[in-house]
Specification:
The chain is of the alpha/beta class. The protein has helices spanning about 20-30, 40-45, 50-55, 70-85, 95-105, 125-130, 140-150, 165-170, 200-205, 215, 220-230, and strands at about 10-15, 35-40, 60-65, 90, 115-120, 155-160, 175-180, 210. The protein is about 40% helix and about 15% strand.
């Protein structure tokens, strides 16, 4: 089984409650070179089959289920996610070293191993929200701790906000920074707290940008992907 890979560093969040709407958007994105993200709402509503249906449209799928449980349970879930043909899957880094290693080992022999990344601190969190759950520290401090743990456990990278990209990339250029909280200039902040423009995120070292509403609510989603991708290319200068 071959896993499709994206041609541009953009992952479009398909935050829909049903397959009909998600597939309509996927068809609008077909040929744009982006990947798509399937989260908990769509996966819960439509089940595993949605991954295959999106893949059939030529779109790599980031299965964003953020597994967080005892190691054996996360290992089984990761193995099952890999078998669906997902291009990328994720777990919560706060599940701890044993859980992270279990997930990595579970997909090691997959026919086509997906990228495995770990969530550090959700982009809806700021210091005040972290304090509410007993972590009265700046988000960047917790991101660094969890990113280092993830790197030591042998995963491919982490999810982090644009503000923590440079912290993550200090752990190695090959250690992936997957970045939500990305908003093109003029876009609404919505429920994100720690955001940046696509160009700023890539300049800081982001490998993959997760973008939802600025693309899915655009009149021409594929053109919106192309515009964002073009903004990531540094202009050439001539003497």
């Amino acid at each position: 089984m071959d896993v499709i890979t994206p041609r541009v560093p953009i992952i479009v969040a398909l935050d829909y409650a049903n397959a009909a709407d998600a597939l309509a958007m996927a068809r609008a994105l077909a040929g744009s070179g982006c990947a798509v993200k399937v989260g908990k709402e769509l996966f819960t509503a439509e089940g595993p089959a949605i991954v295959g249906r999106l893949s059939e449209l030529g779109l790599p799928v980031f299965l964003d289920l953020k597994f967080h449980d005892i190691p054996n349970t996360v290992a089984g879930a990761s193995r099952a996610a890999a078998a669906l043909g997902a291009w990328m899957i994720n777990v919560h880094a706060s599940g701890g070293r044993e859980m992270l290693v279990a997930a990595r080992e579970a997909i090691a022999t997959a026919a086509a191993r997906p990228l495995l990344i770990a969530v550090t601190v959700l982009t809806s969190f700021d210091r005040g929200r972290l304090a509410e759950i007993g972590l009265d520290i700046e988000p960047a401090v917790q991101v660094e701790r969890l990113a280092r743990l993830t790197r030591e456990a042998g995963l491919d990278g982490v999810v982090c906000s644009p503000r923590e990209i440079t912290v993550v990339k200090k752990l190695g250029r090959d250690f992936l920074a997957v970045t939500p909280g990305v908003r093109p200039p003029g876009s609404a902040q919505d429920d994100q707290q720690r955001i940046a423009t696509p160009a700023a995120a890539v300049a800081a070292g982001a490998d993959w940008l997760v973008i939802g509403r600025p693309i899915t609510r655009a009149a021409a989603p594929a053109a919106a992907v192309a515009d964002i991708a073009a903004s990531l290319v540094a202009p050439t200068t001539s003497n």
